[in-house]
Automatic annotation (TrEMBL):
It comes from Candidatus Giovannonibacteria bacterium RIFCSPHIGHO2_01_FULL_45_23. Residues 30-186 form the Uracil-DNA glycosylase-like domain. This is Type-4 uracil-DNA glycosylase. SUPFAM superfamilies: Uracil-DNA glycosylase-like (SSF52141). It catalyses: Hydrolyzes single-stranded DNA or mismatched double-stranded DNA and polynucleotides, releasing free uracil.
Length: 209
């Protein structure tokens, strides 16, 4: 089975899983992009516009994400975009720990299918999912190696959430600067020998997914 079919199958399984939270109130926003993307962008959860259009990052934060991607010559179609929680929490409240936990096995499988070299975690919740000890103000753009259950290493780079950048010009400036670092981080993540030239600021994390 190819990746497109595998992702379709996973989506159908999610739709059929009546135990998933937020089922009664919102659409399943599975994710979209290149099935074999080298980079996955993972946000917190769908908002109003995402729920309405059943696509991730299509509101104001999504427009900013598109622009930041275009600025580094990574068209939206060249990456994969999804969220930790795949249904909109009511009134855009923060996702609850049990909601994050319930969607986790599906996100794990989605990551395994796409098999990215790098995951860009957008905002506090996505960051904490992969890097529980990180702090966004301190660790934004700091790459960390995260081990999968299969023993594969994925580079996780936490960034400020685009919605936070829409509320603060200082955060926007930092997010723009951080985005410019992504192509180089990706290149370094691909070098096998010698070891990557950058030194991750954070120690390798335990196997998290
Ligand atoms: N914010 C998110 O975290 N995800 C989206 O898809 C949209 C806004």
């Amino acid at each position: 089975m190819g990746k497109v079919e595998e992702l379709e199958k996973l989506k159908r399984e999610m739709e059929a899983d009546k135990s998933l939270p937020l089922l009664g109130t919102a659409n399943l926003v599975f994710g979209e992009g290149k099935p074999d993307a080298e980079v996955m962008f993972i946000g917190e959860g769908p908002g109003f516009h995402e729920d309405r259009l059943v696509r991730p990052f299509v509101g104001q934060a999504g427009k900013l994400l598109d622009k930041l991607l275009a600025d580094i010559k990574w068209p939206r179609e060249s990456v994969y975009i999804t969220n930790i929680v795949k249904r909109r929490p009511p009134e855009n409240r923060d996702p609850l720990p049990e909601e994050i936990e319930a969607y986790k096995p599906y996100l794990t499988r989605q990551i395994k299918i796409i098999n990215p070299k790098m995951i860009v975690a957008l905002g506090r919740f996505a960051m904490a999912y992969f890097l529980p000890n990180a702090k966004i103000s301190r660790d934004h753009a700091a790459p960390s190696e995260v081990l999968t259950k299969e023993g594969k290493t994925i580079l996780v780079v936490p960034l400020y959430h685009p919605a936070a950048a829409l509320r603060s010009t200082q955060v926007l400036k930092e997010l723009e600067e951080d985005f410019k670092k992504l192509p180089e981080l990706l290149k370094n993540s691909q070098s096998v020998v010698p070891k990557p030239v950058f030194a991750p600021k954070l120690p390798p994390q335990a196997s998290l997914f």
